[in-house]
Amino acid sequence: MSSVGEAATVDTGVRGYLGFLRQSARKRVVLLLRYPVNTLSQFGTIFLVFLVLFFGGQALAPAAMEDTIGGLVVGYLLWSMSISAYSGLSWNVTREAQWGTLEQLFMSPFGFGRVMLGKTAVNLAEAFLWGAVTLAFMLLVTGQSLALDPLTVLPLGVLAVMPAVGVGFVFGGLAIRFKRIENAFQLVQFLFIGLISAPVGEYPVLKWLPLAQGSYLLRWAMEDGTALWELPAGELGVLVVTAALYLGLGYAAFTYCQRWARSEGVMGHY
Question: What is the rounded CA–CA span in Å between residue 206 and residue 172?
């Protein structure tokens, strides 16, 4: 009876949810520290790929690399953060299914949707933390200097990554329904490269694609030193709309897939 009474007094308000976020972040830190080889290899791969791109580009086309190095740094930064933010949710769902704890999340007093939103917020914070480390590494290697005004870079970065989070929700939903989709969502990493490097300045219609407008405005702000309030309102409006649109569509797909899995009776199967 005491356990029933305790469950009935769970704080599902703002204070309780903040406590849940704190514990989710603590769990993520514990997992990173408990499996150091996996953690170091994951981010070592990101550093190694950049070194190959940078030094390979210098060897093959030094003049072209000199002219585009700022765009390379900004684009690679957004790509690494997008991969971390997008894949985190899919891996969370896959691991919870493997551990046999996925159904327990549905019994949370906060509701499954709020639980996954909280996990996504933790993943996003981790993406920005490692993004800062990656940026420092790239600037050290290249000797490049960029404008790093937090009041400009952070809001643009959050909005730029939101479409990737929306894609993460889509694949998180597919992971609930089909369980094993790792090979499928790894292919999206290469699609992100094309979206981030889309020539929005030459073909404005491309700004409505995921990540394209965010990459364009981040390069504008970080390479030219343009402050957030100095950017055209129309361009910022497109960024906000695309961020909200793709995030909303992704969450809707995630909700549909979890209901589909429950109706098919495969929620607890792996």
Answer: 26
CB 194 within 8 A of CB 168: no
pTM across the whole model: 0.85
Angle between helices 62-99 and 36-60 (to 10 degrees): 160
Q: Report residue 64 as tokens.
A: 């072209």
Q: Are 73 and 142 in contact (CB under 8 A)?
A: yes
Residue from 82, 84, 61, 65 nearest 73 by CA: 65
Q: Tens of pLDDT along 198-245?
A: 888 888 899 999 999 999 999 999 888 888 999 999 999 999 999 999
Q: Are 96 and 105 in contact (CB under 8 A)?
A: yes
Alpha-carbon dihedral sign for residues 44, 24, 98, 80:
negative
SS3 at position 175: helix
d(CA 121, CA 45): 24
Q: Which two tokens stand for residue 110?
A: 């906060």
